[in-house]
Amino acid sequence: MNATLRATESLEMSSKALFFAGSDDETDPLPADNAAPETSASRPTTVPEKRLFLVDSDEEDASHSLEHAPGRFRLPDAQANHDSSDIELPCLEELPRTSSVSSISSELSNTRLSPNASSSRPPPLKKQRLASPKNFRHPPSMEDAYIGCIVCNAWSTAKGKGYISPGDEVLIERDALEDRTGRVKGRNKEAGNKGKKKQLTLKAMMNPQPSNFAKRKIDAVIRLTNKAGFEFGRLPQDLSVWISKLLDLDMIAFKGSTMIDCPTVLHSGADVVVSLSVYLRASAFKPPSTSGIETSKLSGLGQETEEETVLRGRKAALLTLFDALNLRPRHGAQTYRDRNVSNSTSESRSERSSGKKKVKTEIVGDGEEVEVEDGEELSDDDLQLIYRKAQRNDRALAEMDPPPTFTLTLRGYQKQALMWMHSMESSEKSARDATCMHPLWTEYAFPAEPRDGVIDLTADEKPFYFNPYSGELSLEFPKSELKLKGGILADVGMGKTIMLSALIHANKDPEPVRPEDEGKKARQLKLGSTFRPVLNDQRLQLKFGSSATLVVAPTSLLSQWSEELLRSSVPGTIRVTVWHGQNRLDLDALHDYDGDQKSIPVVITSYGVLASEHAKFQKSNGQSSIFQIEWLRVILDEAHHCKSRTSKTARAVYALQARRRWAVTGTPIVNKLEDLYSLLKFLNFIPWSSHSFFRSFITVPFLARDPKAIEIVQVILESVLLRREKSMRDSNGNRIVELPAKEVLIEKLQFTPAERIIYDSIYDTAKRNFDQLNAKGLVGKNYTHVLAMLMRLRRAVLHPDLVVNPDNGSQDPSSKPSAIDLDMLISDISKDSNGEGGSKTAFAENVLANLANASEVECPICLDVAESPLIIPQCMHQCCRDCIVAHLTACSERGEEGRCPTCSQGPVKEIELMEVVRSKGQPGEEQSPFVSTNKELAGVSLRRNDFRSSAKLDALLQNLRRLQDQDPYFRAIVFSQFTSFLSLISAALDRERLTWYRFDGSMDMKKRNAAITEFKQNERKPKILLISLKAGGVGLNLTTANHVFMMDCWWNTATEHQAIDRVHRLGQEKTVYVKHFIVEDTIEGRILQIQKRKTAIIKEAFRGTQQSGKGDPESIENLKVIFGDD
Amino acid sequence: MALPKRIIKETERLVADPAPGISAAPHEDNLRYFDVTIEGPDGSPFQNGVFRLELFLPEEYPMAPPKVRFLTKIYHPNIDKLGRICLDILKDKWSPALQIRTVLLSIQALLSAPNPDDPLATDVAKHYKENEKDAQRVSREWTEKYASK
């Protein structure tokens, strides 16, 4: 439907063009013959000696003025500036969005007709230099330039003598397009038959391009004529195929070609040797019409638009030409030919590709999503490789001191970052000494042109630039130029927040307002606050956008940002607003222009808010000030949150208006190259912000295992990314960050027998299930089911309660265990004493009374100080938990009922035992619900031993107890993926009377902040923070703690490291101790086993987000490892 | 196999603070194996006798009782010809709260108070029941004969 529309459009256009062309005929006496050599003595006199083209010659009569322009040499300075971007980086957004086909054909017809429509049309077969259609459309910016000479064989078509002799000039001719088309159509064209011609042209226009090209392919004839215009020979097929293409596209011209050798008497088919001097036409340096790339997005990978075919042909022909001319690039991108041996980058890359044959090329034509998921994952090595180039020059970065309003002291590398960011924003100069060539371009030198047979070797070599990917040519140095102000700050654990805060202080002033803005600004100032009620977008935009910074961060980090910003600023120099929650104020009102220009406005918001605001904004007439303000600067913290370009978050982020943009993330590429795209899109880093462009030059080549993809990414990153790692060293060889040591221990645990039974039964069921599915080959189909089983197993490793159905007798683990009132107990004992002998009662009373004295009890079984003693309710004798449990178990194994080991009273049941909970900190400060109400016994309480522990839980508690012995005020972080396990841990910590805080995804912002703040508060007691990996694995700064406990093992080691880096980061002063708990002979061991296989795919598979619900062979293989017998 | 902390502790205490009339020392090559001597309690037919015993702590100790046997011949209704002892705490009344010391003290007490109603050596028990004085005489003779210092 669109196509038809366009077709009619172009029809109209073409008829206009035709008419126009016709009227132009009379006044256009010269078919553009600009192929004349400028120095050759034998140059035909009819041809203007030199052509000079002016800027903007789009007007019809420009060509005339050009031809008679007196100035001979006018270098296109103004125009270069104006056009350079077009040449270097075809900016797709700016190109017309018309269909590729119609736009091309209409353009072609528009221009093509003008010379040919002249009434004095040559007869069909008369040779005529092909006038360049583009000549008229695109103003050439230079003369034709000599690029070399080809000596080749040709064959003669003439018979006889005297047509040509060695040394004579040879003209190279190509039939005009119409002639050829006409001939194909039936060779019945009459001279001046306008109607006919029109018909043909129309037809050609409406025809899809390929057929056109197919015809051209048929006719690749290139004729050699003598000065008299008589055809005496043709170029052989292998040359004419591509030369004709270049001629048709008006890329090259031949001037001053000479006959080198030929028989004096020609006969048909005789070999002749000609030397062809090749000149690049000025028009060749114009960008080819690339509007087709945009459309190629829709057609996906499989098809190529017609236009792409043209471009590909052009590109291939140019490459062939350079090859034939023996032109070699001086700098820049490796050409296709030698890239495979280019450098280690490509080698290792291709090695990897060949070794790894898991190709996921199920590209369905119906959507992008599918393709996105196809993106091959990058290994860590790849990522290292990618970043290496960007990091190469970082040591030498200059430093910059923060302004006095910034209170903290920056370290050297932070000053470097400040310098870098500052220069990226001001974009005057690059801090990195980088005049990088655009990654896609290669530099060639124009060879010296022989003048009168002499080559002037003293002449400067003039360079020109070629893009072997798009086939573009340019005279301008294709700088890998930054149009953006901003970049990607990808330092790892280096205090990014602080660096950005310094930047906010350092670059607080908006750049000088452009003249056109000046007027608006003045008006806005006048309007002032008088008209505040009548807000309109315009005013909003101008109101404070020019000085405000917007920070977008994950919800969990909002308050951290706010705190850090305030902490690093001289009071009063910064106004921080956290824009989050239900009651979001009008931003405009918040940052009213009240003359308080000294303080820097900063707004902090979350991705969630942004996305919902965006949805609101997109609704018709929706208002959302955040999108209407033009911010001075937008900072995306943890920018990988919007790595999926189709997500709502990402779209919202793209919709922000900002002058300076920063993406801050430690993982700009999470696991796919496409991840980077979203950041570039946000940064508006032309041309990479165009998805089709990114896709064509990076994603697709990468999938095709073209090492170029990585190289391009490297160069992109070199220009926009700053990434330093903790391990990097400065120019003096010192580590840039001196972090305290990190000790990682893996503690291997054994299940208790009961746990083992539970686990094994679950495992057996799962294994049987899996084996059945596997035997039937249905694992792939039931992948989700298998994953669910795995999940259950993983929970079983942590704690049996996580898999036992709470209804089956065991109590809900999260329910708060009830405390036992000591007073009640004592009075109960006293009552009993009426009946029985007093001594025992006295003992019991004594025991209870002594509980408060925190006296240590020797366990009668292990003869050691009772650890977490349990009291036997009947006699008040105490034992260690482990000892009494073992004793009771031994009793039951003998078939006896349990009795007190000390006095043999019975029966004693495990769950009736009472636990003594003694707070080790200051009694009275405790806010735990277990504190007995009895004041005398404050700090001691009893509780039924109804809590089931597990190997992991016990190990954790044991570690914490030990820790408390060493450091009574320790701070520890406990990570788990399972919030239900965190609940169990918190219950256990309650028993231990340890203060804990919790941070997980279910908590709202306020609670999370409170948890973190309280945890960080300086108090003289131990504190433990329980964090769910998903909610708190990134961003948080928890350097107050120096002990980390990893309760479960993760598939993704990167996530694990990042979690640890919450603690092991800048600001940490103590050694960090990390402990992983692994239960032996469980799925966890197998997980490690699989991790060792280094199959990246497992990460996806077990992340639980497998959307398709199907497993690929690799994942299934891994499942087999898990359920395998060994 | 590492020696449990409890056994080490018990051993230390036995050496440092021996119970009166009782000595117990572990073998150097097997710390679970003890050479024990118990002096016959005063006022009993075993007075002035020194009885040698062996004591072995099984793997399950203290969840299982120690194994104790008289090596010195003794004429006692609850101790048989092989030196095996009939004592409830060494069997079903064992509790992990009991220790080597308590076991040995119990054995010493058993020497003072034979219990012919729960015999192990039935003929000795019968003798004690029918003619306690004569039985005690035999016990004294045996003590002199086998257990003199």
From TrEMBL, chain A:
This is DNA repair protein RAD5. InterPro entries: Helicase_ATP-bd, Helicase_C-like, HIRAN, P-loop_NTPase, SNF2-like_sf, SNF2/RAD54-like_C, SNF2_N, SNF2_RAD54_helicase_TF. Belongs to the SNF2/RAD54 helicase family. Residues 18-83, 102-138, 333-369 are annotated as: Disordered. Residues 110-120 have a biased composition (Polar residues). It comes from Pisolithus tinctorius Marx 270. Residues 955-1120 form the Helicase C-terminal domain. Residues 477-686 form the Helicase ATP-binding domain. Keywords: ATP-binding, DNA damage, DNA repair, Helicase, Hydrolase, Metal-binding, Nucleotide-binding, Nucleus, Zinc, Zinc-finger. GO terms for molecular function: ATP binding; ATP-dependent activity, acting on DNA; helicase activity; hydrolase activity, acting on acid anhydrides, in phosphorus-containing anhydrides; nucleic acid binding; zinc ion binding. Pfam families: Helicase_C (PF00271), HIRAN (PF08797), SNF2-rel_dom (PF00176), zf-C3HC4 (PF00097). It comes from the Eukaryota. Signal peptide: none annotated. GO terms for biological process: DNA repair. Its main location: nucleus. It is found in: Nucleus. GO terms for cellular component: nucleus. Residues 859-904 form the RING-type domain.
Automatic annotation (TrEMBL), chain B:
CDD domains: UBCc_UBE2N (cd23813). It holds the Pfam family UQ_con. The active site is at C86. It is an enzyme of class 2 (transferase). One of its GO terms (molecular function) is ATP binding. The keyword tRNA processing does not apply. PROSITE patterns: UBC_1, UBC_2. Keywords: ATP-binding, Nucleotide-binding, Transferase, Ubl conjugation pathway. Belongs to the ubiquitin-conjugating enzyme family. This is E2 ubiquitin-conjugating enzyme. It comes from Pisolithus tinctorius Marx 270. The lineage of its organism: Eukaryota, Fungi, Dikarya, Basidiomycota, Agaricomycotina.
